[in-house]
Write a structure and sequence with these properties.
Number of helices: 0
Structural class: mainly beta
Oligomer: single chain
Order of helices and strands: EEEEEEEEEEEEEEEEEE
Largest sheet: 4 strands, antiparallel
Strand content: 35-45%
Shape: globular
Number of strands: 18
Distance between the termini: 22 Å
Radius of gyration: 18 Å
């Protein structure tokens, strides 16, 4: 596990708070890593030997999931989770998909992004997201989350200031809601304040913030429900990166 860039919160994992590194440096005490993810100022990794999560960096809101609120310059074990298949870092929260299809979150909950139905400001250990099951993929970037289930349906929760939940409103959600009209989805992705979905027919759909044209629908207008991305031939697509 190697990291580089800013290190003011210890997010490089080398047991220092020294400024920044312009070249990759090895994160201490980590090996047998199968997946990695970055949040705003914290980092996450899955250890393949037991599928546990390890986290380091900023922990002001409990986003390291170890029950504390102090930053860590070295990887610490996220409490109570094993058999983890995927991890994602929100800006100041974290998200994990377990092999049984459940989703777990921890950290800041200002916009309901923990998805547990509570109004708690933060949670320092993982808690289960409500109202979803049989999840096969998750995505997050800022303060909202997306989840895809085995039936090809997409669910969203958290901040919705630009319509990034895709439910036709601008209301925050502290419990996941199904994005109606999205069917047969095979992959999802999350931008800072927008969402993306890939359908089985290889069309791409987008919603949320569009101030820079990131929805690809030919406008700069925010969208509260999914719209198709325009101007490419689906028959020529080989790979899509979210």
């Amino acid at each position: 596990m190697w990291a580089w860039g800013s290190n003011w919160s210890g997010q490089l994992g080398n047991e220092t708070f020294v400024g920044a590194s312009e070249v990759p440096i090895q994160a201490n005490s980590l090996s047998n890593i199968s997946a990695i993810a970055c949040g705003g100022d914290h980092s996450l990794a899955i250890r393949s030997s037991d599928n546990t999560i390890w986290a380091w960096g900023n922990n002001f809101y409990g986003q390291l999931g170890n029950g504390l609120s102090t930053n860590s310059t070295a990887p610490v074990l996220v409490n109570g989770l094993s058999d983890v298949s995927k991890i994602h870092g929100g800006y100041i929260h974290s998200l994990a998909l377990v092999s049984d299809g459940t989703v777990w979150t921890w950290g800041n909950n200002r916009y309901g992004q923990l998805g547990d139905g509570s109004t708690l400001e933060e949670r320092r250990t993982p808690g289960q997201v409500m109202n979803i099951a049989n999840i096969i993929n998750v995505a997050t970037k800022g303060w909202h989350n997306l989840a895809l289930n085995s039936d090809g349906k997409v669910f969203s929760w958290g901040n919705n200031s630009n319509g990034q939940l895709g439910d036709g409103t601008l209301s925050e959600r502290n419990i996941p809601v199904n994005i109606e009209g999205l069917e047969d989805i095979i992959d999802i992705g999350s931008g800072w304040q927008h969402g993306l979905a890939l359908k089985s027919d290889w069309t791409v759909w987008a919603w949320g913030d569009n101030r820079f044209g990131q929805l690809g629908d030919g406008t700069f207008k925010d969208r509260k429900t999914p719209v198709p991305v325009k101007n490419f031939n689906v028959n020529t697509i080989k790979y899509i990166s979210f």
